Amino acid sequence: MKLISWNVNGIRAVDRKKQFDWWIKEQPDFMCLQEIKATADQIPSHVKDIPGYFAYFNSPKEKKGYSGVAIYTKHKPLAVSYEMDSVEHESEGRMITLIIKDYCIIFIYFPIGFGVPVRLAYKLAFYDAFLAYIEKLRASGKKIIFCGDINTAHEEIDLARPKQNEENTGFLPEERAWLDEVVNHGYVDTFRFKNPGKKDFYTYWDMKTAARERNVGWRIDYVFVSSDLIKSLKDAFILKEIYGSDHCPYGIILSDLS
Which of 151, 165, 214, 216 is 20 to 30 A from 98 in CA distance terms? Predict the structure, then answer.
């Protein structure tokens, strides 16, 4: 089972750049797109309706052209959810959960902490609500896979310039502490598990400073799995050669869903 995730920074923009078809040729079982910046009715039909895939979309209820996630799956889910248990975190179109057999596969675009202090507070509250949500799912007997743009680099190895960013959102101690908590709860960062100590692998680069050409990046996009899936993890990868966004795609290969 192959899962690929990508913050596209605008699904229509990626389509216009002719950078959308590569993953169709790749034929992953799951393709998750974040920051699609479109409602389902705004997405061109050749992008929205991919042969062989079921597609699901979640967009902000109020703010247009912002946030949003899309899921393409070859496996018809038993159930689809667009909500956590906390209503205050449901308005920005950031999450889709698929129930497939005894798996919960959650695709999510976490808030960024830039701007006014209230956004950092919102991000941290969203983090806490999400961890409570997946812990509830796991307590019900589900295996957990979650992926997306977490908008935080976990360790110094996960960004090119850690010292210069110690006081910047995306690498603040309180943001990184949440990722510590995720790990302590038994969820595994698949890329780091398969690539311990591997340096200079990032998923995001600032476009304004041409950071990608210099590989001055951040690894802020992740696939986590619950520890009961580690034996099934075959590979975890970053597709840094794929352009079209300020992020690149990344993913995992697991043994077949069973």
Answer: 151
